[in-house]
């Protein structure tokens, strides 16, 4: 294990994080609010530590080995969570270490679970930093990594095997061109969402923040009431549209740029995604009422894309809606998007395998091969899906039992674990419900949920394998 190479890569990421902290520092300085010093100090510490690590660590041109990729990816997320928490930890807010780390991890993983209340009293910089953490957590870290690694003669494509939720296919012959297309597409969507929200009635500051947290499917807001604060149908429709765009595969943009229509209309999981949305809306209409159709669509899209925005207190819709939302929490949107959850790709593959097995039962002497689009589903794909599902439910069961052991009630433990593992945010019940925060949870519960958020964001494998003893043996 070449720790020098691993830390030199993470040192570059830390320096990038330190530079980003200057943006909210400038925002606070311009508005005359008291958070500028916290961001300036945090930026200086992060930059100095990153520079120090980079200077003392040996630089090597050999590619990363598999186990080094796993450690690099996990360490990168942990270091970003630790250092991006510093502005929360320093005065004037001076959160506890637990709360600062929880808020930071929630932002970077796009979960949207928050310990902040009375957001209207927070400074411009702190609100902006929360939104930025979700935007860069969703795309920035991966994009920066794939730009930085080639300068070290390391194949940037390697980390996609450990951050599999971000990109499900190579869209261009060269990685540099792929990164450029993805970045342009994501920035374009963010700018379009900002302009649309501003035109719909948000202030420019609210529009910028909500555009970042909508496209990242993160769900942080600048107001305690989330989207309920605005209470404007136009704003809700704009957010619905861009939450859907955030839930679609990010390779959709480059396909549109190059007019590769086949890559869009033959994408099975996109149609599965819209089928799930439509079915959930149709199931809720008889329960909630057709007059609430806009709010039904908003909450279904928000939950399925794991954004977690709240436009209405849906906990009052009854037990059927609450139970349905628990199942939708698990689904997630498309693989290759910024959302969490199991992802539509896996459900589509499982559905086709089940269909094939049922045909084989009826006609045992016939040969049926499960297909995803035009491709035959081989055993490597099914094994990978089984591994993911096994780790998903083992982590979910273990975290739920851990939260219950701490003393949380069943609904809080169950929904909190499920919400954080799927990177959604709001849970159910009186403690972490859609109108509540995670502030009242015990410190132990926040550390468990922080780990669960990271595991869900990294899709389990790259984190879990670090705990296997054989990984640390020599010559493995």
Description of the molecule:
- The protein is mostly helical.
- It has a domain at 257-472.
- It is built from 21 helices and two strands.
- It has helices spanning 3-20, 22-31, 36-56, 66-84, 86-89, 97-108, 124-151, 175-200, 204-215, 233-247, 252-257, 262-265, 268-288, 293-304, 319-331, 344-362, 379-406, 410-421, 429-432, 443-457, 461-464; strands at residues 371-372, 375-376.
- Strands 1-2 form a two-stranded antiparallel ribbon.
- A hairpin with a 2-residue loop joins strand 1 (371-372) and strand 2 (375-376).
- Helix 13 (268-288) crosses helix 16 (344-362).
- It starts with a helix and ends in a 12-residue tail after the last helix.
- The relative contact order is 0.10.
Q: What secondary-structure arrangement, pairings included, does this model have?
A:
Layout: H1 3-20, H2 22-31, H3 36-56, H4 66-84, H5 86-89, H6 97-108, H7 124-151, H8 175-200, H9 204-215, H10 233-247, H11 252-257, H12 262-265, H13 268-288, H14 293-304, H15 319-331, H16 344-362, E1 371-372, E2 375-376, H17 379-406, H18 410-421, H19 429-432, H20 443-457, H21 461-464
Antiparallel strand pairs: 1-2
Task: Summarize this structure briefly.
The protein is mainly α.
